[in-house]
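Hi,

I'm pasting everything inline rather than attaching a file, because the server keeps stripping attachments. The sequence lines come first, and each chain or strand is labelled.
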Amino acid sequence: MNEGLRTHSGGRIDRSQPLRFSFDGRSYTGFAGDTLASALLANGVHLLGRSFKYHRPRGLLGAGVEEPNALVTVRRDAARITPNLRATQVELYEGLDACSQNRWPSLAFDLGAVNDLLAPFIPAGFYYKTFMWPRSAWHRLYEPRIRASAGLGRSPTLADPDHYAPRHAHCDVLVVGAGPAGLAAAQAAATAGARVVLCDEQNEPGGSLLADDPRHAPLVDGQPGPSWQAGMLASLAAHPRVTVLARATAYAFFPHNLLGINQRLTDHLARPRKDTPRERQWLVRAREVVLATGAIERPLVFPGNDRPGVMLAGAARTLLNRYGVLPGTRAVLVTADDSAYEAAIELQRAGVFVAAIADTRAISDPPPGVAGANATQLWMHAAQRAGIPVLTHATVTGTTGRRRVNSVTLARHSGLAGSSVTHPCDLVLMSGGFTPSVHLYSQSRSKLTWSESQQAFLPGAPAERVRCAGACRGVADLAAAASDGAAAGAAAAQAALDPARIGVQPRAPATPPPPVLPPHANHAAHAATPQAGGFIGALPRAGTARGRAFVDWQNDVTVKDLALAMREGFRSIEHIKRYTTTGMATDQGKTSNLNALAVVARAQGRAIPEVGFTTFRMPYTPVSFGSFAGPARGALFDPVRTTPMHDWAAAQGAVFEDVGLWKRARYFPLDGEDMHAAVARECKAVRAGCGLFDASTLGKIEVVGRDAVEFMNRLYVNNWSSLAAGRCRYGILLRDDGYVYDDGVVARMAPDVFHVTTTTGGAPRVLALMEDYLQTEWPQLSVWLTSTTEQWAVIAVQGPKAREVLAPLVDMDLGAAVLPHMSAVTGSICGVPMRLFRVSFTGELGFEVNVPADYGPAVLQAIHASGQPHGITAYGTETMHVLRAEKGYVIVGQDTDGTVTPDDAGLSWAIGKNKPDFVGKRSLSRAALVAPHRRQLVGLRTRDPAVVLEEGAQVMERAGARPPTRPLGHVTSSYHSAVLGHPIALALVAGGRDRMGKTLYVAGARGDVEVEVTGTVFYDPTGARLNG
Amino acid sequence: MLLINCPWCGERPEPEFVHGGQAHVARPTDPSATDAQQWAEFLYLRDNTRGVYAERWRHSHGCGRFFNALRDTTTDHFIATYKAGEPRPAPEAAR
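And the predicted assembly:
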């Protein structure tokens, strides 16, 4: 560490705790309490980064969240690499390993800096104008080059090993920002009885107080700033109703007073504990919100304003007073705001030679003595008394220096007497005034209004239960900000605790009162509020001004770029922003937006409010993906649903597939079998003997009540009145638009009890549709709907031997005379209560055994054991699909697509013809739904038995048809049928049922495939096996 | 994330609810008596209001009830929520 660059004492660093760290591979030493930025400056390192486009050498501009230049990558290990961190917010810890970005091979010698020489050829929007031709160069040349140079920093390539915790919280008053206004607001709200959350982005609360020199601190509430702050913090910490969150950035204002807060818990620790989350994502719903988000100092726009060593005056104060760092040895200040005078005097007191203060304003000489002088004149007087020359009505014509500024040339505004003066220096401090941080307020959709006197957008009418306090609404004076905060906190607490109030529902409160500024202040050095306004836009040019004047440091946007965009016809600020990318970097224009706006306004001869402002978007600062993902990753990314028999299937070697959230056994390969072989074996086993299938994922809804049959009649197309108890029927559900929505077997267990099954994926939406009609159209019906999907384990036993397999286990006669096809009875199996349906989705004699879910595995194993003599074979969804397709049974969502009527699917036989109404009935007679040539479900057989059609392939009338051709339809299901020995397919084909026996063509990967149109039932068309 | 006042359960966050489209669109009591135009309007035509809009919500991850709400589509502020079957409140009265 270069001792000469530290103050002898003071600052909020712990000089007894030196910390070693490295930057770009070189080792340095700093102190506990330092940021990476302050520690580097204390080591004489001013070159901290390269700009994005021109690769210009850059140093610190700011000292906090606004920093656009000093973006670094911090690396803990191979997986823990975080790019694009602001060095001003990276807290130093022992062993911190950081490196600079956007340079190659090194920060000091960067080949990309050639872009800076090419700058005249790559102005704003150059990438829209070049790279146009030759067309073929795009993929080979342009895109790879652009990709290589695009983006800031490098993302880590390994999975993030850290964990992130979400937390939801509620409070009466949420205060954002723990500066003087925020501390006072939190204190006042808590005192009034409110539950308070106070969050602040920094490692310690205090805001602007942290940048003050404690030995010359201004008074707040009659106390010196530091002791007032300490008292506040102690009182808040001890308060049972207050939660203070440090390192917690409120990055988003969501609707209805929900704020997203990103809290960093371990990034400042040398050795984070493994069980501590790295970040916590707070979602805080507050009855009232107080924004005390402060203001950000604005740079001045003059030629050469981006050299390392040119920084904000407030940043220099922070470096000096908070971190004990001398940011330079010889300083020149350029200002449009009184606050820079304070910086100049403090720096000089600390031993920095201040060569001059150049004030852009025209300031008349102070009247004799102090009385009667305005604030600016008092400051000027104080500076002159300290021996600092002040040049008024000044501007900057240029700076010099490659990796650090070494001179600045000052001049008076054009037309004024006096020649330009060049000052050698290694520090140029600038202040264009302060821009209130209204980001969150604007995100809440609350209005911003332009203040002519303050030259700033200030909070206007609120759209949520939110109010602002302190510098973010233009109350800059310390004492005034604190009392403004206290008033806001008390008012927020009163509104939150109003007994007449119902809940958190936001209803806009009245427009806030205008800020009241105190007529006089409490300390000589703070004789009055610094003159508000400052300077916005580009400083006037004078004489031989040369060099680029940067508006947006991070995206390298200059005044010339903005002018070019306007010359090219862009007028709206939103378009100019996108064309030049001003304000679109990771800092979202915290330091640049207002200056860009003013440059545009001046060029267009319009007032700033006429030009408007660009949208403030969340997040306020970048938030890591991990924080948003929280625990929802890996196995917890999505819930997984498994059936009661899942473990059994897994033990049998099942290969699973995802069906919605369910894991379903797809097939059960034996040694060496691929899917094709396994499915062929399973299919044959079911047709020849007996198969065992886990059908538990089918949706199940219990429809119960006096009016259950009436409800079912109104909802499903079928006639349920004619269904006796103890019988089941294949049910079809439409929407009112007449299209098939779901299907499934419905069993009438008792006159007033229906056991409705739905498709696996359709259960929630069918229940929702049922509830919708029941609650909102037919509330007079006495019906109860209960989802029972997970209450029943369902075991399908299918095949000619099914009866023999089940008979020894059940307490009933399974004979066809007693239990014909489509019977539904209750009984028991292995002593377990059971609903037994004689149904089949395979075309074979079949049963579906429903038992309470917990008994599923035991009953399944009993059936499996009982089936051994009959060659019982477990089969999966793939075999189920083939078997049902052989029988022409449709799968809703595969063979239908939301535009298919029952008639299209060949299911009109199911419709209860004599019912006055059911959901969708009226639509079935709409002209479009009875038009000829609708697509109808048919079977397809390939002429070449070796070819299996592609599902989704287009069906065409003629071979070799090329676009533009209207296809007749598409293949919906296609399999090889091992039992039949040839491929089968279902397809929706225009006028399909009139094309029986005709030849059509289906597009395939190797040309068109000739197919014959057939019926949909390929196997056992008479149903003899089904009824056996 | 909106905060929605379920008339049965009180204020709950938006993820507990499912939006149900425009409110007070009654299904014709005898659909067969409607002509094609009337039926098409019932099926497909909905208001696209700028301002106060009556809409249906279902507290699907709570009580499961459908209810109605008056929401200002320009601000997302709820003016009132009320049970299904209850008349639409006058916006002024609801405030």
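Residues 169 and 284 of chain A are 5 Å apart (CA to CA).

If the labels don't parse on your end, tell me and I'll reformat.
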